[in-house]
Structures are given as C-alpha cells and as structure tokens.
Amino acid sequence: MRSWILIFLGLFVFSCKAQQYSLNTDYETIPNNSHIKDLNNEYDKFVGTWKATLGNKEIYIYVTKQVDRPISRLTKHFFRDVLLIRYKVLINNQIIESTVNSSNDNTNIVSMGTEIDNSVAFSYEGGKCTVGWGIINTEYIDPSHLNWHYQPQSTVITNKNCSDYPAGGIKINLPYEPENIVFTKQ
C-alpha cells in the first residue's frame, strides 16, 4: 500500500511540473490551465518604485510582480507570472493622475513577456476612454536605472465614442516624449 502512495505522489508532482512553462512560451502552444512562470526570476530586477522628472512633471511607477495571474485568450485559459505597473503623475507637486490604489485585477499596465534584449514589454489599456492605449517597453539598465519607451496608439477620442468625454479633452499623462526616458529607483 505504501508503494502505491509513493507512486501516486510521484506522478502527481511530475504532472504539476509538466504544466509549467518558461516566461516567453507562446500561450497558443500550451494546454489549458497551464502555468507560464518566471522560472529564472527575470522580472525581479524590475520590481520597485521608480521616478522620472520631465520639467515640472514627476512620474512615479510602482512595479510589482503577480504570480499566476489568470489569463483568457479566446478559448485558451492559463496562468502567467506578470509584472504590473501602477503610476502617479504630478505636475508642480499636484497629483493629476494616479492608479496607485488600483487592485491587481484593475491595473491596466500588464507585462506580456521579455524581449530578446531582456527588456519587458507591457500592454497598456489606456486611461479614460482608453486614450493612450499602446505598448510600453522597459529596459533594465542597472540596479538604479530603467529605460522607458512608450508608444501610444490612440491619442484622439471625441465625445462621439466616449460618453463622459470632458469638455477640456483628455490628455495622456504618462510620458511618451522624449522617446526614451530614464527612471531612477527610489
């Protein structure tokens, strides 16, 4: 009886390990309910609070790691280790936009994986009325510096496709110019 228990436990552990895949595995190639894991801790160096100053604007990004975030893509359901970015933008020391208190489920900047150059690509759903949705790439320079490159895809929204469009318009507050911005770890 004891040997059957050991065999069962061995098979159970092996089957659990078989459902783990490395960070950049294409989700289309894995079975449902698999786990795409940060097996080599590639994300850890990005975690922390980072700050950039552009003129009178200060931008703080708060990078955290979420393990086993549930993901659904059409008929594929799986779990992925991801980085989440929450942010706070200040102009003349006044907060003009903040997602600092967003829950993990409501954080709208989520990593998609690492690139060949070890940068991390993020999907950004955009701010109010999805203005500014696009791709953000962050590159780890050294323990104190991070390079930020944001490519907004949507910069124009009208009151026709945004019911609560403000009279003064909607601005993208995350920095996208200059092209590469260096953040310093706090």
H-E order: HEEEEEEEEEEE
What profile does the largest beta sheet have?
A: 11 strands, mixed
Q: Whole-number radius of gyration?
A: 20 Å
Please, how many helices? 1
Helical content band: under 10%
**Outline, from the CA principal axes?**
globular
Distance between the termini: 57 Å
The chain-level structural class is mainly beta
Extended strand count = 11
**Low-pLDDT segments, ≥5 res:** 6-14
Q: What average pLDDT do the residues reach?
A: 85
Beta-strand content estimate: over 45%
List keywords for this structure.
single chain, 186 residues, mainly beta, eleven-stranded mixed beta sheet
Please describe what this structure looks like.
This protein is mostly beta strands and 186 residues long. It is built from 1 helix and 11 strands, in the order H-E-E-E-E-E-E-E-E-E-E-E. The protein has one helix spanning 2-18, and strands spanning 20-22, 35-37, 48-54, 57-73, 76-91, 94-98, 109-114, 120-124, 134-142, 145-152, 181-185. A hairpin with a 5-residue loop joins strand 7 and strand 8 (120-124). It is globular, with a radius of gyration of 20 Å. The model is unreliable at 6-14 (pLDDT under 50).
List the helices and strands and how they pair.
Elements: H1 2-18, E1 20-22, E2 35-37, E3 48-54, E4 57-73, E5 76-91, E6 94-98, E7 109-114, E8 120-124, E9 134-142, E10 145-152, E11 181-185
